[in-house]
Amino acid sequence: MAASTLTVPQAEMPMSPHLRGRVGMWCMIAAESAIFTIFVVAYLYYAGKSISGPTPREVLEVPIFISICLFSSSFTIVMGERAIDRGNTKLFAMWLFGTIFLGAIFVAGSLREWHRLIYEHGVTISSSLFGTTFYSLVGLHLSHVIVGLTMLSIVLIFALLGKVKQEHAERLGVLALYWHFVDTVWVVVLSVVYFIAR
Amino acid sequence: MLDADSLSKPMFEPPAEVQARPWLDRVHEWIVTVDHKKLGLMYVCYGLLFLVVGGVEATAMRIQLALPNNHFVSPQTFNQLFTMHGTTMIFFSAMPIVFGIAVYLIPLMIGARDMAFPRLNAWGFWMSALGGIILYFSWIGGNGLYGAGGAPDVGWFAYAPLTSPAFSVGHATDYWIIGIFVSGFGSIATAINIITTILCLRCPGMTLRRIPMLAWLNLVMAVQVILAVSPLTAAQIMLLIDRYLGGHFFDTQAGGSAVLWMHFFWIFGHPEVYVLVLPAFGILSEVIPVFSRKPIFGYSIMVAATLAIGFISMSVWAHHMFTVGMTSYANAFFVASTAAIAVPTGIKIFNWLGTMWGGKLIFKVPMLFSVGAVCQMLIAGLTGIMLSAAPFDWQLGNSYFVVAHFHYVILGVIVFAVFAAIYYWYPKVTGRMLSETLGRWHFWLFLIGFHFTFDFMHIPGLLGMPRRIYTYDTGRGWDIWNFIVTVGVLFQALAILVWVVNVFRSYFKGEVAGNDPWNAWTLEWSTTSPPPDYNFATIPVVRSARPLWDRKHPEDPDWKYE
User: Could you state, in order of their start, the residue ranges of all structural domains in chain A?
Assistant: First the structure.
């Protein structure tokens, strides 16, 4: 039986294989969201249960500037995606650099906050329950930012070497999806840590 | 032997120089492979190896409990044995086996040439394998600096504060944490791969209404892995922070909560049961129609029931915690959701019966194991409903009744279905049939042993025997039941021995299978046995849920009625 004798209506054609990167990334985002959910639940459950140490209200300051930087980096990466979709690799590299720069400001700002908490207020991961939950939730997010920055930097190196072409737009879209996820998680972490459970 | 054999001849025979390569070359090829068939086989073999290891641990425990006041193993060893047995069987036996079956069969069944991410597939397998090695390294490396420990002895759900540095001295518990953590990454990777493969790589015409039931059940299973194994990973990170960085997540003296660990563990732990049993249901849904000579009864209802099980099973976890003490509202919610899950499960049982009803039943070994699994699913489900009632659970929680119940699910359904799968797909994988005679010996010995062990295990539970005790006194009425339970283990061990002989003997001497020895209907039977590296010479095109039926019966194809 020759397969070609069967014709299949367009509606019965399966999804295209080129979408697999996107589908896979969405699955990974679902898995990561489950991990973050558990940490957020633990943070909310333990809010105010700390027996010793300073309370969040006493030591935490809302990190407005670095949050704006991180949220803006979602915008810059979208602009980068548009540039590479049109094949403008130079513009793409510029927007990519902007994204990495904004992400790096976020990392630096977070580390500055940690330095202040540790040296001025003595809040460490083992000093109190608040310290444990704070550093693990914020640190989990920060580690995701760092992983994302590492991947973006590798792409930037390739872009500067002239290896990134228009045909890579789909894959870069998948990477951008991860970066948007990292930014979205910060909305949740920011509201939980600095507003809801303060 | 069947008309199907005339449909497609073996297309490819490896040239002599390929077959005659040095053995080191061939081992290397298996280690670096990204082929879903090789990885699936390695997954299954790895899981079966650990099935034997976990079985030996179980046998040692049963010998210890066969007689009152026995001294076969020390209390410390007994604690290690039940921890290692539980952890091994769930994470390093059952999960690799169901993943292996999924990874091997899904691309073949949906007409694809490989998984969506072949290298991620290899990564997932090797992470799982690494996890098992890390866990078992604890027998050697678990002593640590303090000279205490050996293997982990905190139980497979590792309740706090047993896992705190004060009570788990040495590194045994760390090996347990990291072993599960690492294999969890592998599981999540493979789950992502399974979902993406089913969604993106189906052949033309293979709509979601036509994919084989096994693919549907594994799709829901993979979603559950993503939603349930990830919380366990998160909880293991917290435990590591507690043990290594001095955190206080589960440290009650600093305001932490031991109960939160229970919640986090069972948010994983209960869906995990369905992660294992859904693929088993998938196997039953493939085997029963073929040996009843009828299409599956109520395909779309089966899919709906699967989705319902997947959905409800995410909200039943605290039925493991009735004895902890929750509010009456929480109790009522978890009683209701747990009882509700019996409805879609019942639908599945009725649909399998509906498939068999009026069919031309052929009781070959795969069908024997499948019918056994369906009957045992009914009993396991009934004791499950009993335990879902909170007052009943207050009486019997943590007793041998619970142990008997969940072994009924895991052994009676999952292992029986896995054996059905092995007898059913072994011809496809190796090109040779397993011996029917030895297979029947295997089935009956295993069935008798299973019922001796796990039917009678309910009774000491009802008589108040708690689980995880190292020994017991005479005169409590438990003696005779424990002895019968242990006798059953001997039958099961004998059955496994028969099966091992069968697998190795048939590999060399079994009857040559041909492409389609069971006259089946799904796409994997349209290619050669074993399938070539590329699975299909041309990507198949299908028009119904039973593509091979359409090819064998062009005068009366299924698609006319869809």
Answer: 64-198
A18, A132, A174: best to mutate for the B interface, most B CBs within 10 A = A132
Q: What are phi and psi of B466, to 5 degrees?
A: -75, 155
Residue with tokens 């019965």: A12
pLDDT of residue B172: 87
Please state, in angstroms and rounded to a whole number, the distance separating the CA atoms of residues A178 and A166.
20
**Rounded-to-integer distance, Cα B549 and Cα B556, Å:** 9
Reported ipTM: the value is 0.93
The pTM for the full model equals: 0.93
Nearest to B423 by CA among B413, B434, B412: B434
- In chain B, residues with a C-beta closer than 8 Å to the C-beta of A46 are 249, 255-257
Looking at domain A64-198, its CATH class is mainly alpha
Block means of pLDDT (10 residues each) for chain B, 562 residues, are: 46 60 88 95 96 95 95 91 96 96 96 95 96 90 61 91 88 92 96 96 92 97 96 96 94 93 96 96 97 95 96 94 92 94 95 96 97 96 94 93 96 97 96 96 97 96 94 92 96 96 95 94 94 93 92 90 80
* Distance separating alpha carbons of residues B558 and B542, to the nearest angstrom: 11
- Distance (Å, rounded) from C-alpha B148 to C-alpha B556? 70
Q: Which two tokens stand for residue B34?
A: 């990204």
From A68's Cα to the closest Cα of chain B, the distance in A is 28
* AA letter at B40: G
Q: What is the CATH number of domain B33-561?
A: 1.20.210.10
Q: Is the peptide bond before B547 cis (omega within 30 degrees of 0)?
A: no
Which residue stretches of B94-117 are H helix?
95-109
User: Domain segments of chain B: what residues?
Assistant: 33-561
- Dihedral over alpha carbons B82, B85, B88, B93 (to 10 degrees): -150
User: Helix axis angle, B365-388 relative to B436-462, nearest 10°?
Assistant: 10
Enumerate residues 6+ apart whose C-beta is below 8 A from B384.
Answer: B338, B342, B405, B409
CA distance B356 to B179: 42
One-character DSSP codes across B209-268? TTS-HHHHHHHHHHHHHHHHHHHHHHHHHHHHHHHHS---TT-GGGT--HHHHHHHHHHH
B:232-271 residues touching chain A, CB 8 A cutoff: 233-235, 237-238, 241-242, 245-249, 251, 253-257, 260, 264, 267
Residue B432 has phi, psi (to 5 degrees) of: -130, 150
